[in-house]
Amino acid sequence: MRAWAKIRKLTGLMQKLRTALTAAILATAVTGAAAAQDRDDRYITGTISPPAASPGNAPEWSGESGASGHPLMTAPAIRAAAASFPICLERMWPAAARRGVSRETYHAVTASLTPDLRIMDLLDNQPEFTKSFWDYLDVLVTDVRIAKGRELLQKYRATFDAVEQAYGVDRYILAAIWGVETNYGTIGGDRPVVRSTATLACIGRRQNYFREEFLSTLEIIQRGDVRPDHLVGSWAGAFGPTQFMPTAFKRYAVDFDHDGRRDVVDSVPDLIASTANNLRKDGWVNGQTWGYEVVIPATLNFALADRRQAMTIREWERVGVVRPNGKAFARPDELAYLLVPAGIQGPGFLMLANFNAIMKYNPAEAYALAIGHLSDRLRGGERFAQDWPRYERVLSRNERLELQQLLSQQGYDIGDPDGHLGSKTRSAIRDFQGKIGQVPDGFASAEVLERLRAR
After folding, report:
1. Cα–Cα distances in Å, from 425 out to 28, 358, 430?
2. What percentage of the chain's residues is helix, strand, coil (to nearest 5)?
3. What is the structure's pLDDT at 124?
4. What is the pLDDT of residue 35?
5. From the CB of residue 68, how many other CB atoms can be counted at a distance below 10 Å?
6. CA 33 to CA 357: how far, in whole Å?
């Protein structure tokens, strides 16, 4: 547990970092203007070798009901749906036909298809423990991954040049997504996308959603964009080195090498350009970075640390939020919101519009922060200047649920306790921290839980 005195001491140390540190952090990417890209034979048209499939020794379905308690996730419901799998597939044929899928293609894909019931365990998996932000960064932003990313940036430099000119998306962000999603195509999964999406379209609690993914997969096969034997990926159907869901492929995939196919699996130009097109359509701002590491004063009103509380960087400076290396912000009039993943005990971050674009690619703040940080390291930037509170134990899901229940018993409105710490829970934690003499930063620490238990 961390006493108030130690927190205050740590805060003082972080304040000293304002002038003591000189490392270059989070350099702003400057990319070319967006423009339509005509064919340019000067850029590299490389191919990607898919990871080898595993030898078929994946575990079978546990045979147990799912943890969600959904009626379609009970063991009897799963068995009944699996028995009706061929009927479900046949019922989807008219919808496939309306999308231009031929009967021949449909039969070839579905005739011998069987459900992958192991996916039911994965669909309802609720891990007891959650990784901290620093654990995610430790796993995803490594020296090996940085070195490999720089190697690929050099190898496909001409392609990245052309994509930046066409879409205005920073090459280092694109390489970081490639690295974080699949470690540059080496860990993308080996489940056939058509089998995974068909299973989820017919069995379990998300059939409506995955029916669209299954039908979109058939369209990809019918068009011949990706070789069927290379259309493999995660249990949920994401495929390719930057992990496109079939519906996302339909919206964003482009034929950048002009060979008549939009191949985000085997064509490097198509892969990079399609990922850039995705980010651009999700709001990427050309020439702007994703965000900045910042030092947070202990006197800050931490209610401002909310995605809905965007202010200009100039306004953040007025309340004492500064960069740890003493450098000026590039554009003080840009809007940003404040993220403090570890409260006053760790680094803070001012997030710009491009961070939101990354969040649309994968709506997890830890993921998006890993993308941003890896991109900066690929560019030549340094590690974060401030330390994470590695002494803090991350609360398990059951402990987070207990924390919410105890806050509710104290009279706080936190909604229905669910183990997910949203804005109401953070607001309640801040108020409780203020009452017990802690910096009211809203961080759900083990000490806060212990103090609640003692009430």
Report:
1. 34, 25, 9
2. 50, 5, 45
3. 86
4. 30
5. 14
6. 18
Distance CA 221, CA 186 (A): 23
List phi, psi (to 5°) of 403.
-60, -45
Question: Tokens 């308690």 sit at which residue?
Answer: 69
59 class by beta-carbon count within 10 Å (0-12 exposed, 13-18 middle, 19+ buried): exposed
Question: What is the distance between the alpha carbons of residues 87 and 174, in angstroms, rounded to a whole number?
Answer: 42
DSSP conformation class of 312: E
What are the distances in angstroms from CA 65 to CA 58, 75, 77, 268? Answer: 19, 4, 9, 41
pLDDT of residue 128: 53
Closest by alpha carbon to 315, among 344, 283, 350?
350
Say how many C-beta atoms besides its own lie within 10 A of residue 234's C-beta.
Answer: 20
Q: Which two tokens stand for residue 211?
A: 């029916």
Which pLDDT value is given to residue 247?
98
DSSP state of 322: B
* Torsions phi, psi for 163 (to 5 deg): -70, -40
Residue 173, number of CB atoms within 10 A of its CB? 28
Which pLDDT belongs to residue 58?
A: 60
- Residue 314 and residue 328: Cα distance in Å, rounded? 10
Ranges of residues in the chain with a pLDDT under 50 are 1-56
DSSP letter for 284, please.
P
Quote the CA–CA distance of 44 and 53 in Å, as a whole number.
27
Inter-residue contact 324 to 25 (CB < 8 Å): yes
Length of the chain counted residue by residue: 455
- pLDDT 10s digits, 208-235: 999 999 999 999 999 999 998 999 999 9
The 10s digit of each residue's pLDDT in 236-290 is 999 999 999 999 999 999 999 999 999 999 999 999 999 999 999 999 999 999 9
Alpha helices in 171-287 (DSSP H): 171-182, 193-202, 207-223, 246-252, 268-281
